[in-house]
Design a protein that fits this description.
By secondary structure, this protein is an all-alpha fold. Helices cover 98% and strands 0% of the residues.
């Protein structure tokens, strides 16, 4: 009788263990189904992003090429502007020397003439 009690108790424990393993298997199956759904949705999302990104990258490449071309033009214009500024600076220096030298002479002559006239008025 004691043997049959332990046998019955072992059978009950085996049933409980089998039910527990069945529960674990069901939970794992459910989680696996959810994971499959998440992976499928992620793959669809990545595919959509790829479909939209590839044309955008092509447009960005074209835009960068156009900007580089315009930058080259601006570089040429800046170089030309620098040359023009240097020429204007040289011309300004030449005009300054050309105009200031006679003005200094006229001013000096005017000063000298005024001194002479002041000297004659005193006499």
């Amino acid at each position: 009788m004691i043997a049959s009690f332990w046998t019955a108790l072992g059978a009950i424990a085996a049933i409980i263990a089998a039910v527990a393993w069945l529960g674990v298997a069901v939970l794992l199956g459910y989680n696996l189904a959810l994971l499959t759904s998440v992976v499928s949705e992620t793959a669809r999302l990545v595919h959509g992003i790829t479909e939209e990104t590839v044309p955008l990258l092509s447009e960005v490449k074209t835009t960068v090429s156009n900007v580089n071309r315009e930058m080259d033009r601006v570089d040429v214009m800046l170089e030309s502007t620098g040359k023009i500024v240097k020429n204007v600076e040289r011309l300004s220096t030449v005009v300054e020397h050309t105009v200031s030298s006679p003005l200094i002479k006229v001013a000096a002559a005017g000063y000298g003439l005024s001194r002479v006239l002041k000297g004659r008025k005193k006499d």
